[in-house]
Amino acid sequence: MRYVSYLHNGKAAWGRAEGTQIIDLSSVAPDLKTALEKELLAPDLDGPHVDRTNVTLLPVVPNPSKIFCVGHNYEEHRVETGRAKTNHPSIFTRFADTLIGADDPMVRPKISTDFDYEAELAVVIGKPGRSIPEAEAMDHVAGFACLNDGSVRDWQWHSRQFTPGKNFPGTAPFGPELVTPDEIGSLEKVRVRAILNGEVMQDATLDHMLFPVPEIISYISQFTPLSAGDVIATGTPGGVGAKRNPPVWLKKGDEIVVDISGVGTITSRVTVED
Q1: Which residues, at least 6 apart from 95, have a Cβ–Cβ distance to it below 8 Å?
Q2: Which one-letter DSSP state was computed for residue 263?
Q3: 226 DSSP 8-state letter
Q4: Owning domain of residue 7
Q5: First and final CA of the chain: distance in angstroms?
Q6: What is the pLDDT of residue 185?
Q7: Which of 92, 115, 241, 250 meets the CB 3.0–4.6 Å disulfide criterion with 162?
Q8: Does the residue 266 lie in any domain?
Q9: How does DSSP assign 10-51, residue by residue?
Q10: Is residue 62 part of a domain?
Q11: Do 37 and 106 lie in a common domain?
């Protein structure tokens, strides 16, 4: 199943995506996060049908309580950044108000030109838990989505802490859909790509991850409870703009695509903060 959050006639709603139609399920729960918390997702739920061309997509979970991001989780990206190998994943946080819908433009802040793309698979938690064993981690996954972890590199590199460069408004397209695990098949074969103005910049499958999804979920759940609707961005492959020679920064008018096999595609135009 596939679920979306969206605006229709000026009102926020959510529903099940079926081809060109959305089955509006807002009568079941006020938003997708609440539906996950109350375990209300089911294939037989019905509601008014909305033409997908008449909606504006919101971040697929607009209001997650927590967003975790994994740094340097693909070997090629670890090498290009010069990071040493570690025994545990590098975790940083992103704020919910930085998320935008899959159709929204990415906003380069006016105080920097060092704006970069990062194509990532996002995991959405469906079942809460603490100290989750790796063998049970996938039971806690509601589904997957695309995320572009847009990064303002000079602010990211002000210190050893990533937070400033990862939390500018309008920098993280998230969607277009929440895709349930039964739609995906083998995670290891899922392919993550970033395509800038038609040129493939990042391209890797999830089996290149240093820390696979179950290990990430288990690790995070050791230090904090995971709640339904929480989001984990699982890291980006090699090929980011900052590590190219010369660097490739996102500029006004660029088209940056995040394409993840079986999950979906988000296409973002880049604008500059007014």
Answers
A1: 67, 167
A2: T
A3: B
A4: 2-56
A5: 38
A6: 86
A7: 92
A8: yes
A9: TEEEEEEEETTEEEE-TTT-SSHHHHHHTT---TT----EEE
A10: no
A11: no
Which residues have CB under 8 Å from 145's CB, separation 6+? 60, 122, 124, 174, 175, 176, 177, 178, 179, 263, 264
Report the alpha-carbon distance of residue 131 to residue 133 in Å, rounded. 6
- DSSP single-letter state for residue 7: E
The whole-angstrom separation of Cα 100 and Cα 47 is: 26
- pLDDT tens digit string along 37-90? 999 999 999 999 999 999 999 999 999 999 999 999 998 888 888 877 889 999
In this prediction, residue 28 carries a pLDDT of 96
Question: Residues 49, 98: one domain?
Answer: no
Q: Which of 43, 33, 35 is nearest to 1 (CA)?
A: 43
Domain presence at residue 129 = yes
- In the listed set 22, 37, 56, which residue is the last one of a domain according to the structure? 56
Q: How far apart are CA 123 and CA 34, in angstroms?
A: 17
For residues 236 and 204, the answer to whether their CB atoms sit within 8 Å is no
| Last residue within a domain, chosen from 56, 75, 102 | 56
Say whether both 47 and 74 belong to one domain. no
Give the pTM.
Answer: 0.96
* 76 and 141 Cβ atoms separated by less than 8 Å: no
Token pair for residue 84? 């040493």
Cα distance between residue 49 and residue 160, in whole Å: 49
Residue 105 CB neighbour total at 10 angstroms: 14
Q: What is the pLDDT of residue 86?
A: 86
CA–CA separation, 178 and 16 (whole Å): 9
- Which among 130, 156, 154, 121 is positioned nearest to 231, based on CA atoms? 121
Please indicate, yes or no, whether residues 82 and 167 belong to a single structural domain of this protein: yes
Low-confidence ranges of the chain (pLDDT < 50): none
Asked whether the beta carbons of 209 and 73 are under 8 A apart, the reply is yes
For residue 271, the cross-strand partners are 107
